[in-house]
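Hi, here's the filled form for the chain we discussed.

Project: internal
Contact: R.S.
Residues: 631
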Amino acid sequence: MCGIAGIVSPRLAPADREDAIARMIRRQRHRGPDDDGVVSCGPATLGMCRLAIFDPAHGHQPMTSPDGRFHLVFNGALYNHAALRAELAAGGWTFRTHCDTEVLLAAFVQQGAACLRRLRGMFAFAVWDRDQRTLFVARDPLGIKPLYYTRRPDDTFVFASELNALLASGVVPAEVDPVAIGDFLAWFAVPAPRTLYRGIANLPPGHSLQVEADGRVQTEAWWRLPGASPEPVNLTRSEIIAGLRAQLAESIRAHRLADVPVGAFLSGGLDSSAIVGLMAASGARRLKTFSIVFHEEEFSERDAARFAAAEFGCEHHERLLTGAELAADLPRIVAAFDQPTGDGINTYYASRAAHAGGVKVALSGLGGDELFGGYPSFRDMPRLARLLPLWRNVPRRLRAPLLHWLQNSGSRRRKLADFLAHARDLHELCSLRRRVLSEPLRLSLLAPEARRLAQRQGANHPMLDDFVFELDGADANRTVSAWEMRTYMADVLLRDSDAMSMAHGLELRVPFVDVPLIEWWWRQPASVRHDVRQPKSALADAVADIVPAAIRGRRKQGFSLPLAQWMRAELRPYLEETFSDSSLAHCPWLDATTVQRLWRDYAAGRTPDNWSRVWTLAMLVAFLNRPRTAL
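And the returned structure, exactly as it came back:
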């Protein structure tokens, strides 16, 4: 696991490029405290900082092919590197290390971009070809590892693992994109390929990019979710569940591979318990597990996590988090953000605990809800889609007053109003599913120019047309699953997990976000994939022999902090400062009067269900007020 960076420029001298790369590496040193390196070749300079997981004593980067033609920087982990090593050695490569970085280099030298489909793991990497004078960059299929880039007007191309590193280069200006402000207020994140900053792009998951010798930049998708396929025949549900168990066990086996200590996050819910149970069943002994607990009992999953840890024989570590501690840490946490987010704080503290507990790798249950149908959206979106034609047949003069009433009611009704006002089918419903603010409220919070741009963008997700094309022919269950994976999981959960774990030098692995598992599960019958009456029953049945019934039958709680309580208590001084006139003066894209009204109504207890909206807005304002030294 690493932080990578690079510059390709026909105009910058090697010394200037190397100075810029050094600044970029220093800014993301937390991603790789074990080693670093820089190489220049022609108009290209590549750099990295390494968190050594495989073959810690070797694997220095940038890594160069024996003939000096190819130079590689790599952030990630390849779980099938041992199998690939044997194939590549048979093809003539003489290996000097036992690390996965050299396997990737050999694969690219022998197979070029075609090697991407052979890679199993999480990755973002760049290869400079000295002879062709081209840079090739690629990102893993689901977006576990990040890659940001920009092309400047003078044809200088810059990339890095973090936006903060790009800005630290001195080559890239930190110019906020007002369209991105509107996107953030809608989606809890800025959806790829846009970022918060004008002119800086987020390479989408499953995409590659090539910078040609003449400065042209070409991107293409190299992986998509499998298309619609016939349902398997002559297989019983029990046989499919047995197949799922085998796939899960194989994913755990692959994700446990490391030459350093491996632990796990454990909340006591089905997803994390399944991960830990499968790790124990695969031979892990006295596995170190970590959870976050609170004094507020209704939020804390302490007892469930303790029960699960005892069942699996784990060495369990609890991290008590209080509102006072969070208030003191918030400036540091916001500085760790690559882009603003209303999420990720739980991962920040769990990662800190894991690092303190002596592990360099931790497994997480992230992705279980998206893959196995754990969200209400798997039930609600198809139902609402069936009702939309009836709604569209209601005369407009009758629909308008009902929408007005819904838009002026509670948060759930406001979301329903957005569905009814802007959605025509299941895809458009899914595109609106993760809206944080209702459309009228979002627009009211924006300053005039940002509001105009947001209105031009529309209410639906910016990737709507792309996903409709990609998911052509998919049934309702696969459609909802794909939307949850490609938007909320990729743009919020995976992004935040990477930023918050790497802030503590921890490699976080997500066995449910595993391409072989996803592609296999994607081909199974919808009747097995999801049971409306028993969400995630397939996963529960697949681990029934190792996960106790008390956990499998436990009602889904979901991990959330007691923010609604803390925001009116320990966090209130921080929020008062965040929403002050002086703070909002640095946010010209927002309507300060409306922002302050939203905060005052919540603080006075008039709108208690607005806590997540107020918190999301506070994190945006706090991020925009970060001192330049944070960059």
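Let me know if anything looks off before we file it.
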